[in-house]
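In keeping with the milestone schedule agreed at the kick-off meeting, the structural modelling team has produced records for the first pair of proteins. Each record is given below as a sequence line and a C-alpha cell line. The laboratory manager (R.T.) confirmed that both were archived under the project's standard naming scheme.
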Amino acid sequence: MSALRRIRTWGTTGVWLGTAFVAASAGVAQERIATSDGVVAYVSDVPFVSTVGRVQSAVTSRGLYVMQVLDHTRAAAQLGYDIGPNTVVLFGNPEVGAQVMTCAPRAGIDLPQKLQVWEEGGMVLVGYNDPSYLVRRHSIEGCDELIDRVAETLDSLARDVAWKE
C-alpha cells in the first residue's frame, strides 16, 4: 500500500509556494517535485547514508566524474550548528561543461553540476538545479539539444539515486 508524504515548497524569498504530495512505497513511481526557484527533488526510498552512498556509483556509471563531496553537516557542526544530514556532491563532464560555457560563459558559476542529499520533514530528498532555470538565469541560447541532454541526465541520475525499482 502506498503512503502519501507532504513536502513544503518555498520560494527564494521564503514565501510558501504550495505542497507537493509524493507517493512513497515500493512499486509506486515517485513524483518529481519542482519548485519555482529552480530546484527539482525526489524522495529517497532509503535512509540518508544509503542515499549518499548511491551517488558515486550512479555518477560514475554514466561516465561522469565526482569532483568533490561537501559534507555540510560536518562543517556546520564544527561551528556549533545542527543542520541535520546534508551533503552536496559536485560532478560532471568537463567537455559538456565547456560546451555550456561556450553558449553562456557566466553559466560556469553553476558548474560543475550538483546533487544534494538532505533530510527535511522526516524524509530524505535528492535534488538538483533544474537546467531550464539555469537557461533563464544565464540567458543561454542556441544550446537546446545540449541542455536537454543535461536535463535528461540529471533527472535520470536523481531518480536512480532516490530509489531502486
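The second protein of the pair:
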Amino acid sequence: MQAIQRTALIAWPHASKGWGGCDIKFFEEAIGNHMVPFYICSTTRTMIVRRDVFQAIADPTRREIIHMLSLQSQNLSSVVNEFNVSRPAIAKHLRILTECGLVEVRAAGREKFFHAKLQRLREVSQWTDQYKVFWSQKLDALGKFLEQETTPRKKSKTTKNHKK
C-alpha cells in the first residue's frame, strides 16, 4: 500500500526542529476503510503514529479500560485480570490509549501504573454536542407526530335520513 504524503507544517511543543530533533513529514495511509495519520522522522526514518480519541474509543475493550482507570490507577497485571484476553492484547490497548492521550503512565519502582486522563474526551463531547440540538428537534417533532396519530379522532356526527 502506498502512503499519501501531505505537506504540513508541524509545530511540536517539545523541540524547535520537531520530535527528537527530526525533520518530520506527515503521511496518511489507507488502512481498511479509513485513513490513518502518521509521521516519519527523516533523520532516523522511524514512523511516529498519531492516534486520535475517536480511534481509541471505537473499541469496547478500550472503553472499559478507560472506565476502570478513571476509577483507580492500575498496573498492567491488574488490568489484564479484568479481561478474558491476552496480556499482549491489553498492552496494545493501553499503548493506543496512551498514544492518543487518554491514559498516562507513571512509574513507581519497577511497576508502571496507568491512569485515565479524561480531558481528551472533551473533543468527543464537543463533536456530539453539535448534533444534540439537531436530533432533539427531530425527535421532538417525531414525538408530536406519533402523539397525534395515536390519539383517537372524534367522529363527526352526521344526520342520516331514515325512511320507515
